[in-house]
Every structure is written in structure tokens, then in C-alpha cells.
Amino acid sequence: MRANLAVARAHAAQARVWAVVKADAYGHGLANAVQAFARADGLALVETEAALRLRQLGWSKPILLLEGVFEPEDWPAMQAAGVCCVVHTQEQIAMLEHARLDGPVDICLKINSGMNRLGFAPAGFGAVHARLRANPKVGAIGFATHFANADHADNPDLPMQEQVRRVRLALQGLHGEISLSNSAATLLAPELAADWVRPGIMLYGASPGGGSAQEFGLLPGMTLESQLIAVQQLARGDAVGYGSRFVAPAPMRIGVVACGYADGYPRHAPNGAPILVDGIRTVVLGTVSMDMLTVDLTPVPQARVGSRVVLWGEGLPIDEVAQAAGTLGYELMCALTPRVRVEVKNGQPQGLEIHGNQE
Ligand SMILES: *Cc1c(COP(=O)(O)O)cnc(C)c1O
Questions:
Q1: Which of 175, 204, 233 is the last residue of a domain?
Q2: Which of 59, 130, 146, 189 is the most exposed, fewest CB within 10 Å of its CB?
Q3: In CATH, what number is assigned to the domain containing residue 45?
Q4: Which residues, including other chains, have CB under 8 Å from residue 46's CB and lie 6 or more apart?
């Protein structure tokens, strides 16, 4: 994670870096993120409770609340914790105008540059800014937008340059720090870096699209590992697991891995999803169940109960597993469940973190 932060910095030489740590640092744990991202300029996230927890964990540099406040009482809490809040609706502005604060709060005005999730449209953006600038409860005002297609900049439905054009339109005559780029834009359009970049997924070693993690020089932030807890010898025609979705075409050995969808492994992983047993690449067979999944041991004849299994991470990019399961590395990381034991490997050259559910 530390090394990946350095990659982000190298792409955004002039810009400061908000390391995005929403969703429990994409499943890697806030406390781990605070350590690994000690050299980031700020941490950005969505959850108000987690923002306060970052302060308890000793993070004293800036914090950005990416969706801003949700409830009126969030305004004084965030102000007291020195958290900069995105403002994207008139409702948030009204809550702020009614809030009792002990001092000014820094905000980041969100521009809806075409993604149509959050923010104020360019027309009228100046008026929103003027209303906030006139409010003595408001400290510094920065600006942000979010790209829909940074991994595919020429998407005809919303080219990235069109979003940039709308940002310029919204910001005419306004001054403040600007933040545009997610991981994909940081890596693929470094010329847009502006004052701050906001990389997330790349810091955890998965690709945001537009290239592989390896091509971008990213290292896996987590390795999900387990072990074989049983081995079965199948005869031709023997079926495996729920729905008998795999039927042995010939005699073969399969292994039973102590990992299932209750750990966060995708239930939709098909026959053929990649997996490592004793460091050798093989495939998932049959339906993934709650606590177990089954693998082909044909390429790993020496495998036995206790053999180490890597579901993703070191030696097996999470993006490959995600692609096989029809999803993204993002979703797999965030879906890890609390029963997965976390072992932090600190002091290793690459700051590796191991998630395993073995003894
Ligand atoms: C999640 C998020 C990011 C980080 O996106 P990645 O694709 O993970 O780099 C940046 N900005 C905002 C507003 C986000 O919500």
C-alpha cells in the first residue's frame, strides 16, 4: 500500500494526494491505512464515524468527507474534528445554515460535470458558491468533480474532455483548490492532476481499468489465503457440490478449500475461475458454497490437506479473479467479511497484508 501510494505520487508530481480510505480502506482496515498512507497529504472517505475514528487513530492531517454530511448533527461533529466536507446539495447548505458550529468549517463544492450522481451543475454554480462564501460558518472552499470514464476517456456518451470543459465552465472566476482525479485519471491522464488527486483502488494494488495492475506497477495490498481441508478422489461421472454443477469427465482429484461466500469470495465465480494451490495455478470447480469451494487438483498432484491456497493477491491478481466472476477488484476487496482473520505483515519490503482464515 505504501509502494502504491508512491506510484500515485509519481504520476501526480505537483498535486497533493488524498488517499481514499472509504469502505474500511477498501477492506484493508482503517488502522492499516493510517500507517501505510502516513505520507499521504490527506485521507478521504465517506463514513462520518470512520472520519472521527481516523482522528482517534492519530491522523492529524486533512480529512475529506466525499459525500459530505448526512444529518444536521454531522456538521458540528465534522467541524470539531477538522474534517473538510463535500457539499453537493441545497439540503446540505440549509443544514449548515441552521447548524451551531464552534468555528468555520472547510468545504469542497462538488461540480456535477456530467456523471449525474452528486453535485451542482455548472449553470448556477457561481450562485451556490456566492451563497456559501457569504456564510461566516464557511472557511476555505475547494472544488471537486468525479470522472465517469477515466479508464475509457473517449466514451462517446460522456468523453472525459467534456467533463473537463464543464468543470472550467463552473469554475469561471472562482478561486480555490481543485480535485478531479480518481485512480484511473491519476494513472492515465496525469496532466489533469490539478491541486489534489483522489486515488483509491490503485493504492490497494488493483487496476482501475485501462491497463493491468502490473502494467501500472502496482502491488497487491492484500492476499486472501486459506488451505485445503479435504481432498476427494472422483470417478468419471461423479458430481461436485450444490446443483452438481461440475461432473468429472474422467477420474480426478479435487480439493476442498475453507473459503466461501460467507468470507467474501464471489458466489458467482464460475467453473474455471483461477486459484493457486501450493503456488500452482488451477481452477475453481462447482458451485461456491457458504464456507467452502472446490478446486481441480490435476495440476497439483502433491496437494493434500493443509496445502496453502491463494484466492487472490500475491501471485494471482485480484483483477483476474474478479473478471472471471464478472465483477471488479473493487467489489471483491470491499466484500471481505469480518470472519476473515487479518494478519498484518508489516516491515516487509512491500508492506504486505495477509488476510487468511487458516490456523
Ligand atoms: C471512491 C472515490 C474515489 C476513488 O476512486 P478509485 O476509482 O478507487 O480511485 C475518488 N473520488 C471519489 C469522490 C470517490 O467516491
A1: 204
A2: 130
A3: 3.20.20.10
A4: 22, 23, 65, 66, 67
Domain boundary, last residue among 204, 236, 269: 204
Mean pLDDT in runs of 10 for the chain (359 residues)? 97 95 97 97 98 98 98 98 98 98 98 98 97 98 97 96 98 98 97 97 97 97 98 98 97 98 97 98 98 98 98 98 97 96 71 42
Q: Indicate yes or no: pTM above 0.90.
A: yes
**Residue to mutate, 182, 203, 334, ligand 1, most ligand atoms under 8 Å from C-beta:** 182
Quickly list H helices, the chain.
2-11, 22-27, 30-36, 48-56, 74-80, 90-98, 125-133, 160-170, 183-188, 318-324, 329-334
Burial class (CB in 10 A: 0-12, 13-18, 19+), 262: middle
Distance, in Å, from the CA atom of 312 to the CA atom of 276, rounded to the nearest integer, reads 8
Render pLDDT for 147-203 as a digit per residue (tens, 0 to 9): 999 999 999 999 999 999 999 999 999 999 999 999 999 999 999 999 999 999 999
- Measured in Å, residue 24 CA sits from the centre of ligand 1 at 13
Q: Ligand 1 pocket, 146 CB below 6 A?
A: yes
Determine whether 261 is an active site residue: no
Residue 66 in contact with ligand 1 by CB distance below 6 A: yes
- Burial label for 244, CB within 10 Å (0-12, 13-18, 19+), is exposed
Determine the distance separating the centroid of ligand 1 and the alpha carbon of 37, expressed in angstroms.
16
Is 330 annotated as catalytic?
no
